[in-house]
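Work Package 4 report. The design task specified in the project plan requires that, given a folded chain encoded as structure tokens, an amino acid be chosen for each position. We show below one input record used in the internal validation round.
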């Protein structure tokens, strides 16, 4: 039976969207891997027998890669539980799609769009809310360890600058205490929003925060801390792989500072790579002649943790009916008399 014209239009738009996303993603990856010189920088750092001796460090980084994204998936899936129970594998596909879209969007906005594609259209806002709360949990962990690391690095390498912070460390502690207090009482935001002149639809979304109990927020925070430890360990392993000799304490403090600086700059991860490279030299390369190795470790972490998962995310997007996941094809499907088109895949094409 021939598909109606409106159905054909939806199929065409779906593939145009996917083709555009794929083209932009591949262009972004090409620019960051080859044109900006990161790939050749990593090759330069690996000259000689270094990689033959240090290869177990690189193997550890690859082994930690699935742990990193499994923790992120579980964090999002648990925060979505008050609204919809999502299978882990399906949540993982949404996270991977988000990684692909986030590479070329400011401040990782595309991450939310990718996760929306993995849920039925009626749960789109729930998925975004769960992702936002999970990002806040990750940010709290990152800021907490980042501030401690930055103070350590300032005292170690920038003694004069440290005088500016001397005696004011308690302000950082108090600030973090307030942030954690607000996080564990995130339902306050929904109560306060009732008194604001917000559109009813926006108010409905904010009211979803009342569904989060302190226990679920604590679990999200624990998963965020575990994930933070994982990708910090990956960074440390890459520094060891490229032969960077820095004391463990200074290296971990420098890594925490790098992530803190990068988070403070609202750029796509692809452009944030440049900022992370400069931050790495400020935090790890002071009085150090191993600039090339430090930059190579920074670039390699970007390739392993973001570029490789983004390719998997792109494959996921090609299997999704994008318009249906966003709710734009519901009316056509419901009014279509031929039951061949009324599937319950919620946007996922059947294999």
């Amino acid at each position: 039976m021939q598909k109606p014209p409106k159905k054909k239009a939806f199929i065409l738009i779906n593939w145009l969207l996917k083709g555009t996303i794929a083209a932009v993603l591949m262009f972004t990856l090409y620019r960051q891997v080859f044109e900006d010189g990161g790939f050749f920088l990593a090759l330069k750092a690996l000259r000689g027998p270094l990689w033959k001796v240090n290869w177990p460090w690189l193997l550890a980084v690859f082994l930690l890669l699935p742990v990193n994204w499994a923790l992120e998936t579980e964090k999002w899936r648990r925060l979505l539980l008050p609204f919809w129970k999502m299978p882990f594998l399906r949540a993982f596909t949404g996270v991977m799609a988000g990684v692909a879209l986030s590479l070329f969007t400011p401040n990782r906005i595309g991450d939310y769009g990718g996760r929306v594609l993995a849920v039925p259209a009626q749960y789109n806002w729930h998925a975004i809310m769960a992702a936002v709360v999970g990002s806040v949990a990750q940010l709290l962990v990152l800021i907490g360890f980042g501030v401690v690391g930055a103070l350590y690095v300032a005292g170690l390498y920038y003694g004069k600058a440290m005088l500016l912070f001397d005696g004011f460390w308690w302000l950082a502690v108090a600030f973090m205490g307030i942030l954690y207090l607000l996080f564990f009482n995130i339902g306050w935001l929904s109560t306060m929003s009732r008194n604001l002149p917000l559109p009813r639809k926006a108010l409905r979304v904010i009211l979803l925060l009342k569904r989060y109990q302190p226990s679920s927020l604590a679990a999200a925070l624990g998963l965020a801390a575990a994930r933070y430890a994982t990708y910090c360990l990956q960074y440390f392993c890459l520094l060891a792989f490229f032969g960077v000799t820095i004391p463990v304490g200074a290296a971990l403090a420098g890594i925490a500072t790098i992530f803190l600086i990068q988070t403070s700059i609202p750029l796509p991860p692809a452009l944030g790579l440049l900022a992370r490279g400069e931050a790495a030299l400020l935090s790890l390369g002071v009085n150090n002649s191993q600039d090339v190795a430090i930059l190579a470790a920074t670039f390699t972490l970007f390739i392993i943790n973001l570029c490789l998962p983004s390719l998997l995310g792109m494959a996921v997007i090609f299997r999704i009916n994008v318009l249906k996941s966003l709710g734009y094809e519901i009316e056509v499907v419901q009014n279509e008399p031929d039951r061949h088109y009324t599937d319950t895949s919620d946007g996922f094409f059947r294999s």
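The radius of gyration is 22 Å. Validation will be extended to a larger panel in the next phase.
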